[in-house]
Amino acid sequence: MTKWKKDCFIIELKLLIDTWQKDLLLKRFEIARALYNTTLSYAVKQYTFMQESKHYRKQLRGYQKAKKTNDSKELKQTAKELDNIRQSFGLSEYQLHAYIKKHQHNYKNI
User: Fold this and answer.
1) Cα angle vertex 26, ends 20, 32, to 5°?
2) Element (H, E) at 66
3) What would the pLDDT profile of 47-83 be if each residue is shown by its tens digit?
4) Is 71 exposed, middle or buried (0-12, 13-18, 19+ CB in 10 A)?
5) Are 79 and 65 in contact (CB under 8 A)?
């Protein structure tokens, strides 16, 4: 199935702001970049630890085996176990939000 082509146009307008507003925006963008990089490095580190875990690798092999044999019951059970492992390493969306929350207080008064 081909993608339906639709004309799209983008208009870029210069933002007319005062210098103090520009400085404030730049500072907030820098804070957002710092929080993003901190969270990303944490998530990559946790993901690496998870991949090195024997339990995770065992469950992943079981998931791949169940997928090849089309065993839906085993597939669901293994997927649930993999999700539990992922959460135990702090890699769910809400756990990452909690991680950001701890670090955002460093920038509260800026």
Assistant:
1) 135
2) helix 54-69
3) 999 999 999 999 999 999 988 998 888 889 999 999 9
4) middle
5) no
Rounded to whole angstroms, how far apart are CA atoms 97 and 33? 15
Distance of alpha carbon 34 from alpha carbon 27, whole angstroms: 11
Task: Collect all residues with Cβ–Cβ distance below 8 Å to 63 and sequence separation of at least 6.
Answer: 75, 78, 79, 82
Taking the C-alpha atoms of residue 35 and residue 47, their distance in angstroms, rounded to an integer, is: 18
Task: Answer yes or no: is pLDDT of 110 > 70.
Answer: no
Select from 87, 106, 94 the least CA-distant residue to 47: 87
Q: How far apart are CA 78 and CA 46, in angstroms?
A: 20
Burial class (CB in 10 A: 0-12, 13-18, 19+), 88: middle
